[in-house]
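Re: that backbone. Tokens:
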């Protein structure tokens, strides 16, 4: 299911004395947040006055957040972005939760979690059995969020309790 807003990171600290906040991105990299002029924090929209990259984080200057104290009040908040402003080809992990998974036309379960490992993501599928499927083209054959359907290829060993 496509979401209206997607989680893009978390405010982990402040930076400087003018209210800038440091965001740890939950996306593939900090470059992702640079294209947004507005973010959502706890249901409130903030205009982005500036966004720059520092190491693997973003430093955001939000309109109306002009002091260290105001920035500190946002610490721990989740930064969300408008899904309509993101390429339709990009699928976020949160949009995969609950998607029905099929192998050779037979339903094997639903995506219940997306694990993020250094090599690639792994989809955890719960059904009659539990599977852990690497999120690579070899195993994820097709994903249609609108149809709430994913086609996969299973190999021996992907079943969690397989002996």
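Recovered sequence:
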């Amino acid at each position: 299911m496509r979401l209206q807003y997607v989680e893009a990171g978390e405010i982990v600290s402040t930076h400087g004395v003018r209210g800038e906040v440091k965001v740890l991105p939950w996306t593939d990299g900090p470059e992702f947040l640079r294209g947004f002029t507005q973010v959502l924090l706890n249901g409130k929209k903030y205009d982005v006055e500036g966004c720059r990259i520092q190491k693997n984080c973003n430093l955001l200057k939000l309109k109306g957040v002009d002091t260290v104290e105001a920035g500190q009040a946002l610490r721990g908040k989740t930064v969300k972005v408008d899904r309509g402003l993101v390429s339709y080809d990009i699928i976020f992990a949160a949009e995969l939760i609950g998607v029905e998974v099929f192998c050779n036309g037979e339903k094997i379960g639903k995506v219940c979690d997306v694990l993020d490992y250094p090599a690639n993501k792994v989809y955890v599928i719960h059904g009659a059995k539990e599977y852990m499927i690497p999120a690579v083209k070899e195993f994820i054959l097709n994903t249609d969020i609108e149809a709430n359907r994913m086609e996969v290829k299973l190999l021996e060993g992907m079943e969690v309790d397989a002996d």
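The chain has a mean pLDDT of 92. Residues 68-72 form the longest helix (5 residues).
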